[in-house]
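Saturday, quiet lab. Running sequence design on the structure tokens for the scaffold JK sent over.
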């Protein structure tokens, strides 16, 4: 039996998706706490090795104190005779100009830092071979695709473990291209340790022999849910036994409130947020929660909530009422309640506005013609259809917004 601790996306020293200074310090401390707990868990479980599937740290923002902390945790593993196999990811590529020297780790740290797959032997204290770890990493941020080709075929009876960072596709319905490219031509690996997903989960279509560990600790609401690592046991002729271990002292809960047409007071909004939070809380209690609420659809409170001070008061009320460490509110197409269908045949300018919105939804050329010259969100590199997707997303609620504004203006005159 080979025991492993599979970690990924630690992002030590990395940028955080929070704005408040006090909360940023809290989340940064949680990142270190999670890594310290992970190392402690590895020692307690007496694992044979620790696998880190990319983004161990952020090369652009790793300060001296964070690097000292990281090397100290690696030293704890080394002193216990536990090797660490680590593949470079997009945040910590070996060839980044932000670092003049590689990470100063112990001899037991094996760093995969090139796009070509390479193997390393995992041995027991007495020198017996236990498994073969094959990894590939990002050597240069501008390099070609990683991995550069398929991993080598298993050449012996040892368990073979693949280690790479491969971002989960947005829809999450199929295995990522780097993982498919890494598959050996003959035979299959016992376990694949992957990084690049917002939470722990098996890789689609991989017979649960390939897993994402998820981040050790969340950096923002995009990584909602319990975070930590995976304890993996590999037995001869058996599928991997994978067990989640929680290491993060913080847990994000990301909720959308979209049934707000009857919510006309802050008290009613707090009650609805409370019900949503109770439903969404993870089964395993976290030491502390951070909650983000996205308000969307029609709501009588929409005009007042567009004011920053009103949202800040609501956030403070939510944190106190829900007993969470912090609460955040964002508006997404929040308008006054409206029924566009009731006005599509009315003989006034609103009918023409709604007809134009309907035509733009069906006619990409018209949509582009109506779009402003500069969009608020820049499209990601290489995604030519991103501007149209962005426009369509905002077009979805434009009929409600048109009704709310034009009918309000009509009432004011």
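Result came back. Writing it out in full:
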């Amino acid at each position: 039996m080979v025991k492993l601790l599979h970690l990924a996306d630690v992002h030590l020293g990395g940028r955080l998706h929070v704005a408040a200074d006090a909360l940023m310090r809290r989340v940064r401390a949680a990142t270190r706490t999670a890594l310290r707990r992970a190392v402690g868990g590895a020692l307690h479980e007496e694992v044979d090795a620790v696998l880190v599937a990319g983004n161990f740290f952020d090369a652009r923002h790793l300060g001296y104190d964070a690097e000292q902390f990281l090397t100290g945790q690696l030293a704890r593993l080394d002193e216990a005779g536990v090797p660490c196999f680590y593949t470079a990811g997009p945040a910590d590529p070996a060839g980044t100009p932000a670092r003049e020297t590689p990470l100063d780790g112990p001899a037991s740290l094996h760093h995969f830092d090139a796009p070509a797959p390479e193997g390393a032997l995992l041995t027991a204290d007495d020198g017996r071979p236990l498994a073969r770890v094959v990894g590939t990493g990002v050597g240069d941020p501008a390099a070609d695709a990683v991995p550069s080709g398929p991993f080598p075929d298993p050449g012996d009876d040892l368990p073979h473990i693949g280690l790479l960072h491969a971002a989960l596709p947005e829809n999450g319905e199929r295995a990522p291209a780097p993982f498919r490219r890494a598959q050996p031509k003959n035979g299959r690996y016992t376990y694949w340790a992957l990084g690049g997903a917002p939470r722990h989960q098996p890789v689609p279509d991989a017979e649960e022999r390939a897993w994402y560990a998820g981040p050790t600790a969340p950096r923002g609401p995009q990584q909602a849910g319990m975070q930590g690592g995976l304890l993996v046991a590999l037995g001869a002729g058996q599928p991997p036994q994978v067990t989640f271990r929680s290491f993060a002292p913080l847990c994000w809960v990301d909720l959308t409130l979209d049934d707000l047409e009857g919510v006309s007071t802050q008290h009613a909004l707090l009650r609805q947020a409370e019900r949503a939070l109770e439903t969404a809380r993870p089964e395993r209690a976290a030491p502390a929660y951070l909650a983000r609420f996205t308000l969307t659809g029609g709501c009588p409170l929409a005009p007042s909530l567009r004011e920053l001070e009103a949202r800040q008061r609501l956030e403070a009320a939510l944190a106190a009422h829900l007993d969470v460490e912090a609460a955040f509110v964002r508006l997404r197409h929040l308008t006054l309640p409206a029924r566009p269908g009731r006005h599509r045949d009315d003989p006034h300018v609103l009918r023409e506005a709604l007809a134009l919105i309907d035509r733009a939804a069906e006619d990409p050329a018209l949509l582009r013609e109506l779009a402003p010259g500069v969009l608020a969100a820049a499209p990601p590199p290489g995604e030519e259809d991103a501007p149209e997707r962005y426009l369509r997303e905002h077009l979805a609620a434009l009929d409600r917004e048109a009704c709310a504004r034009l009918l309000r203006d009509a009432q004011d005159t």
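Notes for JK: Residues 2-246 form a domain with the Purple Acid Phosphatase; chain A, domain 2 fold (CATH 3.60.21.10). The chain is about 30% helix and 20% strand. Ask whether to fix the surface positions before the next round.
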